[in-house]
Design brief:
alpha/beta, Alpha-Beta Plaits
């Protein structure tokens, strides 16, 4: 027990000393963001950092990197840690020295934090490689923000083989928590996500001549209202709202008409999210059949397409509970909170479908209330003290997982 306490303290001190370097790394990445599957300079930067540390790595899926840090008896056990690299098509409004120099692109989801933290972990694991047994696989993943998701592509390319990890961990910025705190949830955590595309076909004409046209705008609005009414009904026989929480939302309608011009067709786009694969499949069929039936009853037609996105994300109870205890030991119980389920989605879900996984949240807000803007906003930023927690805790969780 005394050796464990000494090691924990040593890692905490090392993370504190390493913080200025990791802040520099994070600011470089934040200043030079790249979009999904175009992270060429980001990957090159990560590769240079790993090479400087003497950590072996290989490229995968063009802009992905997989590195290996070996402790004593490296074949004894392998675990994996993942960070994502891509940014979003958002124009940054923050007035900071490290503001994005790539117009219209911003690290608004904190992937610069994830990547710099994992590089910090690489430093720490290399420094303490004589204090643990087994191997840690570091996965720097492209394209989390864009379907089909870099996680799915890296899995197909063999990222979970040679060596095969027994479990995998990832963290994500969480501006709802102050820096120094983290959050965990065992079991179901995040929703699956699908994209919906409808083409409503009618017959165009002059708005003043209703007998001469079939209005696809009216058909589209009727379909949207009917589907929303169905999915809002908690008593539907197809679904238990408590067991199968669901979100259906349409965010784009393109009518292509005018005040007195009825168009021939209307394009509608939306999203569907849930946490049950059986219900997900049944809902897809219901939406298609309902939309087509309504359109035909109103004299038109409907082409309904579903593009399956990421699956639901489930945190393995055993792996997550162990990681939570490790976090409590490292940070103190008062700094570890229980998370609620979320209807947002993450392509780390692909990993969680393949092996025991734990996806936890890293507090990034300042204690004075600053840096609490939500992710995917043009003013998102972090209290950089969170990087000390991000790298130190993940290194500690990795070592703890290898001991189990």
């Amino acid at each position: 027990m005394e050796e464990v306490i000494v090691l924990k303290t040593a890692i905490q001190n090392a993370a504190r000393e390493l913080l200025p370097r990791v802040i520099t790394i994070r600011r470089h990445l934040h200043k030079h963001p790249e979009l999904s599957f175009k992270e060429f300079n980001t990957a090159a930067f990560v590769a240079d950092e790993l090479e400087a540390l003497g950590i072996p790595f290989e490229r995968m899926c063009d802009t992905g990197i997989v590195a290996i840090v070996e402790g004593k008896n490296p074949k004894l056990k392998t675990i994996a840690l993942r960070a994502d690299l891509d940014a979003l098509p958002i124009s940054e409004k923050n007035n900071v020295p490290y503001k994005s120099v790539n117009e219209g692109i911003m690290h608004a989801c904190g992937h610069d934090v994830h990547a710099s933290s994992l590089l910090g972990v690489a430093h720490l694991l290399k420094q303490f490689s004589g204090n643990f047994e087994g191997t840690v696989k570091l996965i720097f993943q492209p394209g989390e923000e864009k379907a089909p998701g870099g996680a799915s592509l890296m899995i197909k390319a063999g990222v979970l083989e040679n060596p095969k990890p027994s479990c995998i961990f990832a963290q994500h910025v969480f501006p709802s928590l102050p820096a120094g705190k983290v959050g965990f949830r065992s079991g179901m955590y995040m929703a699956s996500t699908d994209e919906l595309y409808m083409t409503i076909i009618g017959k165009g004409g002059h708005a003043a001549m209703p007998a001469d046209y079939v209005n696809p705008v009216l058909i589209a609005s009727t379909i949207i209202a009917a589907l929303h009414q169905f999915f809002m009904d908690e008593n539907t026989k197809l679904r238990s709202a408590k067991e199968n929480p669901t979100v259906l939302a349409f965010g784009k309608i393109d009518g292509m008409g005018a005040t007195n011009v009825i168009p021939d067709k209307v394009l509608v786009e939306g999203t569907f999210r849930t946490m049950n694969e059986e219900w997900r499949s049944a809902a897809h069929e219901y939406m298609k059949k309902t939309a087509i039936a309504i359109a035909r009853d109103m004299g038109g037609d409907c082409e309904f397409r579903v593009e399956n996105g990421y699956p639901f994300l489930v945190n393995d109870p055993t792996v997550t509970d162990k990681a939570k205890i490790a976090a409590e030991n490292y940070l103190g119980k008062e700094n570890v909170v229980e998370l609620e389920k979320r209807m947002t989605a993450e392509d780390f879900a692909f990993f969680s479908q393949k092996l025991p996984a734990c996806f936890f949240r890293l507090g990034t807000a300042s204690t004075d209330g600053k840096n609490s803007e939500g992710v995917h906003t043009s003013n998102f930023d972090i209290d950089e003290k969170a990087l000390e927690t991000g790298m130190g805790l993940m290194a500690w969780i990795a070592i703890d997982a290898l001991q189990g």
